[in-house]
Amino acid sequence: MKTVVGNIIAIYRKELQGYFASPLALAIAAVFWLVSGFFFVVILLGQDGIIAQVATRDSMGITDPPIDAPYEFLQFFLSVMGSFSLFVLPMLSMGLYAEERKRGTLELLATSPLYNWTVATGKLLGVLTFFVAMLMPLLLYEAIAFAGTNPPFPAAIPLVGHAALILLGASILSLGMFVSSLTESTLLAAILTFALVLFLWVIDSVAQNAGGALGATLEHLSLLDRYSNLIRGVVDTSSIILFLSYIVLGIFLTAQSIEALRFGRS
Prior knowledge:
The chain is mainly alpha-helical. The chain has one domain (2-265). It has twelve helices and no strands. It has helices spanning 2-21, 23-45, 50-59, 69-93, 95-103, 106-110, 116-146, 156-180, 186-210, 212-219, 223-231, 237-265. The longest helix has 31 residues, at 116-146. It is globular, with a radius of gyration of 21 Å.
């Protein structure tokens, strides 16, 4: 067991160092921070932002129904960040295995004594840690904005919201890792991952049109529906289980993909 954990940590460190040393990954992070900062300012301070809406209601003497400005802002901001992550995360996951294929080192991984799921888990943890580092400035923005609220805004609500964003990110990255293991083209891996995740994002609309037992089944697979529940502060086990299922599924499929390569080379 210690050997397995040690292997995961070794792969995790290697992968994480690679991301922080990669000009492309750092460029993606810079764009993410720039765009997220723009949305933060627009949603909070823009002409039609939350503060402007509250000020307009106050000037018109409208007090019913009351608006919980911090909650409304956080929910809208995290909803936008979730949608924006659909574009960013496939670019982070596209090279997890595709680069190994391109360099010809995937065969070495496939024939190494390491368990395939061990390699996949280490790689996923590495890229997920980089994504979490990308989210840290968002928490700083929000801490500054919420510091002046009266009454104080409960810290548990933004923490649950960001935990939901991390779970969403881990799910997308895990599925993207599997797609990356199927091709040596990083661009193709990014496009296919985006298409897959977009389908899982809007599958609730497909479920409504399908109706019946099929519609009910498809509705349970929706990333958007489960993510929306969590950022509203509704912590239900079914949403968490769904995200964890996608994470485990991505690792399992990746391990099977590498095993198929190992079998083909034997």
